[in-house]
């Protein structure tokens, strides 16, 4: 995805510093519980939109063989640094999720942290979901999350945000949501602290599309995936209408069980 790849250039260097509140450990436990409940306690998993590899590393530590795919070379560079320090055996691939390729099937797939919201057209959802259905083992699970319109209408999403990280880097967010197109624009200005006391400035535009549960389920159905519940809490509990983030489980359909 050229637009996504361009969006994660300067941000990649400071991403982990500003995402310290993301509950990666909690997500890893929830995903592990979901896959193990389906009889997948180990095996090969794919993370789409793996970013800097924090969650990928946690799932590797939980006993899974991991593949991480991301469009941004800069984000993957951070992930590779983590892999080098930890000694983990994780395969990272720079690919567009709309056209990713694997050498074979995987036992499970997950895509979290709003990554699917970067797909700006419902047809792209169908495209990605079709590939996932193709590369999943028979009956394999796909765990995903996505932001709904309610997420982008939250007050904190509609005002400028200025954050300074522990390293001295500063991030300025300007957000604008168009309810007619369901497109959220994030204008980011990043000031990265240099060793000589100077700051380097970079600017990025991120665009995301809000999706309703009905739209995602329609795309899943068109791709051949079947609904299998929800994850992150009770896997049987349907989200409320005002839910800003929905965590959904889909199951491979169409291949014969061995």
> CATH superfamily membership of the largest domain, which one?
Vaccinia Virus protein VP39
- Total strand count, please? 11
How are the strands ordered across the major sheet? 3-2-1-4-5-11-10
CATH topology of the largest domain: Rossmann fold
Helix content: 25-40%
- Radius of gyration over C-alpha positions, nearest whole angstrom: 18 Å
User: How many domains, as an integer?
Assistant: 2
Second CATH tier, the architecture of the largest domain:
3-Layer(aba) Sandwich
Short structural description:
With 258 residues, the protein is an alpha/beta fold. Helix content is 31%, strand content 31%. Helix 3 packs across helix 4 and helix 6 packs across helix 8.
List keywords for this structure.
258 residues, alpha/beta, N-terminal domain of TfIIb, 2 domains, four-stranded antiparallel sheet, 8 helices
Task: Characterize the structure shown.
The protein is α/β, with parallel strands linked by helices. The chain has 2 domains: 2-148 and 211-251, 3-Layer(aba) Sandwich (Rossmann fold), CATH 3.40.50; 151-209, Single Sheet (N-terminal domain of TfIIb). Helix content is 31%, strand content 31%. The protein contains 8 helices and 11 strands. The chain has helices spanning 2-7, 10-18, 24-37, 54-61, 73-86, 122-135, 149-152, 213-223; strands at residues 44-48, 65-70, 90-94, 106-111, 136-147, 161-164, 170-178, 183-193, 199-209, 226-230, 245-251. The strands form 2 sheets. It has a 7-stranded mixed sheet with strand order 3-2-1-4-5-11-10. A hairpin with a 5-residue loop joins strand 6 (161-164) and strand 7 (170-178). Helix 3 (24-37) crosses helix 4 (54-61) and helix 6 (122-135) packs across helix 8. The two termini are 35 Å apart. The model has no long low-confidence stretch (mean pLDDT 89).
